[in-house]
Amino acid sequence: MTVLAHRVTESDANDQLTRDALAVLQPGFEGTTAPAWLLRQVGEGLTAVGLFGRNIASPEQLAALTAQLRAERDDVLVAIDEEGGDVTRLEVRGGSSFPGNLALGAVDDTALTRDVARELGRRLAECGVNLNWAPSADVNSNPDNPVIGVRSFGADTHLAARHTAAYVEGLQAAGVAACTKHFPGHGDTNVDSHHALPRIDVDLDTLVARELVPFRAAIAAGTKAVMSAHILVPALDPTRPATLSPQILTGLLRKELGYEGLIVTDGMEMNAIAGTYGIERGSVLAIAAGADAICVGGGLADEATVLRLRDALVAAVREGALAQERLADAAARVRALAAWTRQARAAAAPGAPKEGSAPGIGLAAARRAVVVSGAAAPVTTPYVATLAPVANIAVGDETPWGVAAELAALVPGTGSGVFPEGASAADILAAAGERTVVAVVRDAHRHPWMVQALDALVAARPDTVVVEMGVPRAEPRGALYIATHGASRVCGRAAAEVIVGA
Predict the structure, then answer these.
(1) Is 262 left (phi over 0), alpha (psi -120 to 50) or beta?
(2) Does the pLDDT at position 349 exceed 80?
(3) Computed over its alpha carbons, how large is the radius of gyration of the chain?
(4) Which residues are registered as beta bridge partners of 383?
(5) In 3-state terms, what secondary structure has residue 165?
(6) What is the structure's pLDDT at 200?
(7) Measuring CA to CA, which residue among 224, 236, 247, 330 is closest to residue 283?
(8) What does the DSSP assignment read for 68-102?
(9) What is the mean pLDDT of residues 132-161?
(10) pLDDT at residue 4 in the model
(11) Whole-angstrom distance, CA of residue 239 vs CA of residue 254
């Protein structure tokens, strides 16, 4: 009997090209259930989906959503931006049960970092999430950085490196792929790439000795993904931002650092790319440069965006602007990670947390991260004045932060108010009356109006308590000064306990 071999037809090749173009996209969507268009695209080849705070109402709802996606494709990558600390999607409306990177770096116990990441990973896996766009491996060498800050383990290169590795190990031990970001390092910027294109003007020796060290550690720890940064680094590529640079993604990350895993772009709708190249051209250039997956959907979250990017990639291949082999290689890396997550899910089936690790490991870590200066009698009649800066886009303004709610839980009758830029110490004192003022700030060193208000408060009321929930660079002031190294809910609880002497 003669068996006729299947001949690859033009329609087969076109269908594979379309599936590959879909496979490299990581889009977002609106709502807490998967829309029909998303399920259809998953069925047609889309291999990954990105989740944001708008998609999450509860762990139960999230588990149902991911099950809905897996009914279409069992190995679908469900990604999330869950750093813990200030950047949380799982607990977007209540604040995170975990401190963020700066707090973990302040404690500097890699076993603790590994355990926190593993517990966070366990919770993600339990909800069906298998790719986390974390950790941030950025060395926060520029104290005026408006977007990294407490998301970094710190300004010390080697501290950042050892905690990045520990975080990767902990997260992946729970069966969730880590995505170490923002390559080649977003720490030495004073511009937020959500708004414009930052530039890092340092020499190659500095980059090698500082920025690249935590990424080397992450690669050695086996990170399954690395996220590129929308930053211009002239020492590496004078013309293109890292996300679009063959020299940085293929030359440096792949060849020099020997990284073989998935390369994911930061959000392509961020203005650093969308406002300069546009998302279609930017996506084609990113894949051509060596990226394997296009993150989009934080701001653009509809089927039209998916189709625009799919068609732009297909057209680029047909026009010769993008090698079909490069797109096929990118899609193969996405599918390989999807296969790993399915195996990891089976190997690390989420069960009960380890005894003594949860639910309290986050609070225990936050307590250890608190640094206190000065001394004061426990406060019994507090008024919490939160001096609130405008939140950066990565953190978002929908996640509550501060000390007021946690202090009110310990001291019923606690008063509170939020004071934006323009408010004065007199406004705060008038609202506080005779109660002890607890002034809560975030990155006071970056906001002269906060420092001015704090100085006036302390001059008028020497018993004022100051809580710094950002990077503690400003001089301690107040009868009692508490640095929490982050603004998550557990950091607020840890500070509240100090204030009441608990």
Answers:
(1) beta
(2) no
(3) 24
(4) 415, 437
(5) helix
(6) 87
(7) 330
(8) HHHHH-TT-EEEE---BTTB-STTTTT--SS--HH
(9) 91
(10) 38
(11) 20
For the chain, the first-to-last Cα distance in angstroms comes to 84
8 A C-beta contact, residue 217 and residue 226: no
Q: Is 86 a catalytic residue?
A: no
Question: Tokens 């297909």 — which residue?
Answer: 314
Sequence-ordered list of residues with C-beta below 8 angstroms from that of 160, at least 6 positions apart, any chain: 105, 137, 138, 139, 152, 153, 154, 213, 214
Q: Which residue type is seen at 193?
A: S
Which of these, 150, 49, 93, 183, lies nearest to 396 by C-alpha position? Answer: 93
Please list the helix, strand and coil fractions of the chain in percent, rounded to the nearest 5, in that order. 45, 15, 40
Nearest 5°: phi and psi at 248? -85, -45
Closest CA to 250 of 289, 293, 208, 292: 289
Residue 194 falls in the annotated catalytic set: yes
Q: Residue 301 corresponds to which tokens in the numbers above?
A: 């979250």
Per annotation, catalytic residue among 86, 266, 292, 443? 266
* Annotated catalytic residue within 163, 182, 186, 194: 194
The model's confidence at residue 396, banded by pLDDT at 50, 70 and 90, is low
In the block, residue with structure tokens 């839980």: 409
User: According to DSSP H, which parts of 58-186 are helical?
Assistant: 59-72, 101-107, 110-126, 157-173
The confidence band for 6, taking pLDDT boundaries of 50, 70 and 90, is very low
Distances (CA, A) of 233 to 153, 156, 207, 248, 445: 22, 20, 9, 9, 26
Instruction: For residue 91, give the amino acid letter.
Output: E
Separation CA 174–CA 475 (nearest Å)? 40
> Which tens digits make up the pLDDT trace of 43-76?
999 999 999 999 999 999 999 999 999 999 999 9
CA distance 359 to 126: 14
Phi, psi (degrees; rounded to nearest 5) at 478? 105, 160
Chain mean pLDDT for the chain: 92
Name the region of 468 (left: φ>0; alpha: ψ -120 to 50; beta: rest). Answer: beta
Q: 417 and 386 in contact (C-beta within 8 Å)?
A: yes
How far is the C-alpha of 276 from the C-alpha of 278, rounded, in Å?
6
Per-residue pLDDT tens over the stretch 177-223: 999 999 999 877 665 556 567 788 889 999 999 999 999 999 999 99
Helix (H, G, I), strand (E, B) or coil at 423: strand
Q: What is the pTM of this model?
A: 0.93
